[in-house]
Design a protein that fits this description.
Blueprint: H1 41-50, H2 53-64, H3 71-88, E1 91-97, E2 101-113, E3 119-123, E4 138-147, E5 166-169, H4 173-182, E6 188-191, E7 230-233, H5 236-248, E8 252-264, E9 267-273, E10 280-287, H6 295-318, E11 327-333, H7 337-346, E12 352-359, E13 372-376, H8 385-401, E14 425-428, H9 436-441, E15 446-452, H10 469-488, H11 491-521, H12 528-554, H13 560-586, H14 599-606, E16 610-611, H15 620-625, H16 632-650, H17 661-666, H18 675-686, H19 692-704, E17 708-709
Parallel strand pairs: 4-5, 5-6, 6-7, 10-11, 10-12, 12-15, 13-14
Antiparallel strand pairs: 1-9, 2-3, 2-8, 4-8, 9-11, 13-15, 16-17
Length: 712
Amino acid sequence: MRIRSFVLVALVVGWAWPAVAGAALSPLGPVSPTTGLVLRDEVVRALIQESSGDRIHDGVQRLSLLARDHQAGYAEAAEWVRGAAVAAGLRDVRLEPMDVKPQWRASRGELWVAGPQRYRVTSHAELPMSLALGSGSFEGAALELVDVGMGAVEADYAGLDVKGKVVLTRGHPSPVLLLAVAKRGAVGVVSSYSTPPWNQPHRMDGDFPDQVGWAVVPSKLTPPGARAPFLFMVSDRQGRELRAQVRAGPVKVDVSVATETREGSFGIVSGVIPGTRAGEEVVLTAHLDHYKPGADDNASGSATMLEMARTYAELIRRGALPPPVRTLRFLWLPEFEGTREWFAVHRDDPVRRVAQFNFDMLGASLSGAHSRFLVSYTPDWNGSFVNAVSESTVDFMNRFNGVRYPARKDFRIASLTGSRDPLDAHMDRYSRGSDHQLFNDHGIPGVAFSTWPDDNYHTSGDRPELVDPTQLHRAAFAGLASVTVAAWAEGQGALELARLVSVHGGRRVADDEFRVRRALASTSGAELPEVYRLARAAIRLAFQRERDALRSCQALGASAAPVQGLVKAQEASESQALARLETDVKARGVSTREPKPSEAERRARGLVPRRVKGQELASFDEVVGRGGAEDARVGRVQAALTAVAVALREQGESELRFYQGADALASYADGQRSVADIRDAAFAEYGYVIPVEVLIDLFALLERGGVMAPPR
């Protein structure tokens, strides 16, 4: 069924905009004593009152009707978004095709338990995600179902004959596909797995027994010309029922799967609100692809960007806002893959992209999904004004939305049909896991807005009715407030922004100092000299990050002299912080002399890796996959990164903090930092010391794979 575009109706709202002769005033001003933002108070009210979480929720419901994880469903969603973007007021709206590749689609997928009491277990027609992407066609009747438990290791198959049979597992399907299908000849898999590793601290398999997980049959599993296996995903409850039947006696299943692969492409929806200054952009992104329903992930982000576009267009039309200084570019695309292709085409555009804002998983009910609203900082090596802007926005939102009935109704962000949940918003240190990481890897400061964790993440439970319009409204405002500063700042407004950056930077470095002083206090005397060295490096890097953030305001148009004055004040503060560290160590009766470097340390100090141009988004896994997986260095690097993830997990860090850890480390390579510098920077960012021997191996492998250039 074809989905019609939004019916966009302008709300009649109740604020009074001050009379202004001629063009509208800049939305920026001095830091407000009321809100703590560099936006004028009347602009804050306008952004709140014009935007609507209810409108966003309508968009979430529309997109959730479509299976956007394959080309046909995605194409329908992209066409709807294109029409809605035009209706919202964006200019130059286009659908850019991506590279043509084989595209999978299914026309039928049914799993039945055969007689004597025959019943249907699951169906692609009723729940498309129950048949995993990449499944191959298959017709079979009365096939034996064999329970292999987790099915992840050889021992799980002891005494079992699975050839020509269907295996049942409660574990992740990938190792089962390898061990049961590719190695032992099973024809397909039924799995009740539902919880990705990075969500296990929040939700374990079985916590929500009726959720069905989302999975893919890896294409590399099937040799050229061979039939791909099928993979059905069922709920934990269904899996337990099937296992009980297997224990009671032989279970036979009927399978009917019809799939095909055709050449085709996904696409990228792009539109702009033109700026008055040529050659500068602020980029907004949301990934449009995902399974059906995929409401919070990520119909919410896609629909939120449409509402942000409509809000800006309406306020500009009314004269409440002037046109932006920098062009606002809105991108709806497939996660990661679409961003990679967009950069491949647009990397060398004659445009300076000053910031990027990513909207991914915004609408989960905070109370219903046991979640928080999060905004990420940029990585420390990519310091920017956007951190202070985002932090001040979070502070404002919490202060005026932390109770159900706030005293200031004009700053309350809620929707007519949404909850009255108190807001619980937080700034998080840089985490990867969505498209903002790719912009940062290109040097463009990117922050991510999200609700995390989510009890329904990557499952059939991610439905529109579990998405809260109030939370959508809050996410939209957070984006609008932050983007407005980035897109409209110039001249005096950019200088006021620099003052905000200085204030919030002081708070951040104070937190950094607290963390390293606590580390010193908890370190044994024997280890203290090395930890002291690392602590000093962490303080220097923290202040460097904030100096970079201040200088980014200069690039927006802030006067150089006052910004330089703020930079010098930070240099004085850095000296004082370093002196406090020295006092801490001397009070322990330990020498502050730097330890004698080891041979590996000396070597690491002499190696300065640099990324090959055009390989900014190449990954460690791709390098390993192209050959050389048998290299002993690969195993050492992977083992070390696993140890980092375990340590961070035990420290209470988010599972996404070190997602794709090898690539996170590679992003520090700028042709100036040595491998030893990168070790210190990683300690400052993550609080974990990675042995330089491991980093030497990592960068040698990346150099061999053509991602890094030989050291100069």
